[in-house]
Amino acid sequence: MSWFERFGKYLALTGLSLMWPVVDTYAIGAIHGPEAVLFGVAGAVYALTYVWFCLVGYATRDPRLPMAVVATLTVIAVALDHLARQENTNYYLLALLIAGFSLRPKPALVALALVGTVTALELMLLASLPLAQVVLQAVLVVPGVALFGGSGMGLRYLVRTLAELRAARAQIARHAADEERARIARDLHDLLGHNLSLITLKGELGTRLIPEGAPGADEVRDMVRLSRETLQQVREAVSGYRQPTLATELMAARVALQAAEIELDVKQNVGALDRDSEAVLGWVIREATTNVIRHSGAKHCHITLTREEAQIQTEIQNDGWRVPQGPAGNGLRGLEERLAVMGGALDAKALPAAGFRLLATIPIQRHADAPALDVEVEA
C-alpha cells in the first residue's frame, strides 16, 4: 500500500476548506437569531458527515452508502443556501467530489448531473440578478461540476489502476516463482529420475549375476533398495511441485474475478498447511472461482479460510442471481472425490435470498501445531 493510499483519507479532509463561506457568513453578520443557530448546526452536520465518510464510510462495499452521503450533503447545502439567503456553490463541491470518487462511472455521471442541476436551480431561485445574468451564472456552474466531479472520477481511476498494477506485478512475480518450481520439477524428473532408474535397473541386474551369499551381495541389494526409495521420493517431490498452491490460486482468483468485474474479499486464517491440504484447497478455490465467473452473474465474491479445532473450512460465497438448479456438475463431483480422499466433505447450495455458497471442509493433518496467521486481502 502506497503512502498516498494510507494517508489519502486524511488528505481528503483538506476539502473542508471549501466550507469557508460558513465562517464568512458569521464573520460579516449576515445571519442572526434562531436561523444562525440552525445554520451552524447544518454546517456542523455537513462537516461531520464528510469527515465520517472520509475516515470510515469510504471503505463500505454497499454502493448505496455513497449515494446516501451525496444526497445528504446536497440537501444540507440547499438548507445552508436558504438559511443564509444566498447561493454559494462551495457547499455542493464536496458532494461532487464524493460522487465522482465513490461511485461507478454511470451512477457517478447521473449523480453529477443531479447535483449540478440542483446547484443551477438554487442559483436561479436565490440570486437577485437579471435573467440573462442568472442564465450566465447557471452555465458557469457546468465547468465547476465537470472539474470537481471529473477530478473525483479521475482520482478513482488512478487509484484503481495503481491497485491493478500492483496486483499484476505480484501475479508476475508469483508466476515467475511457479515457472521456477516447474523447471525444478522437470529437472528432477529428467535428470535424477532417469539416472536413478538406471541405477536401480543395473543394481537388479547385478543381484542376479552375483551368487547368493557371495561377498558384496547384501551391499548390492541395499543399494537397489535405497535407489528405489530415492526414486520414489523424487517422484513425490516432483508431484508436489506440480500441485497448485494456495497463494497462487488466491492470486489467480483475484485476477480472474477482477477481469470479470467481480469484487473479491479474502480472509485467511489457516496458518501453515501440509502439501496435500494446500493442493486440495487450491483445487477448491480454482473450481469455485470458475463457477462464479461462468454461472453466477455476481458482483461480489467472498473467500474465507478458517482453522477450527480439528478441521479447515473454505467458504466461497457470491451474491449472484443466476444459480444452477440441476445436479452437481463434473467439477463439483471431482472436488467431492478429492475431498473424500482427505476425509473431507463438500456442501454446495443456493442461498435463500440470492447467491450461492460452497463450503469445503478437510480435517487438520500434519500441520496441527502450525501457528495461525491472519491475512486480509482488500478488493
Give a brief description.
With 379 residues, the chain is an alpha+beta fold. 66% of the residues lie in helices and 11% in strands.
Strand order of the largest sheet: 4-5-3-2-1-6
**Which overall shape is indicated by the principal axes computed on the Cα atoms?**
elongated
Average pLDDT over all residues: 78
Count all strands and give the number: 6
Structural class: alpha+beta
State the end-to-end CA separation: 12 Å
Largest sheet report? 6 strands, mixed
Count of individual domains: 3
Number of helices: 11
H and E string? HHHHHHHHHEHEEHEEE
Helix fraction by DSSP (H/I, runs of at least 4): 55-70%
> If you compute it from the alpha carbons, what radius of gyration comes out, rounded to the nearest whole angstrom?
32 Å
List unreliable stretches of 5+ residues: 366-379
Notes on the protein architecture:
With about 375 residues, the protein is an alpha+beta fold. The chain folds into 3 domains: about 5-165, no CATH class; about 180-240; about 245-375, 2-Layer Sandwich (Heat Shock Protein 90), CATH 3.30.565.10. It contains 11 helices and 6 strands. Strands 4-5-3-2-1-6 form a 6-stranded mixed beta sheet, with helices on one face. Strand 4 and strand 5 (about 355-365) form a beta hairpin. Helix 7 (about 130-210) packs antiparallel against helix 9 (about 245-260) and helix 10 (about 275-295) packs antiparallel against helix 11 (about 330-340). The longest helix has about 80 residues, at about 130-210. The chain is elongated. Residues about 365-379 have low confidence and may be disordered.
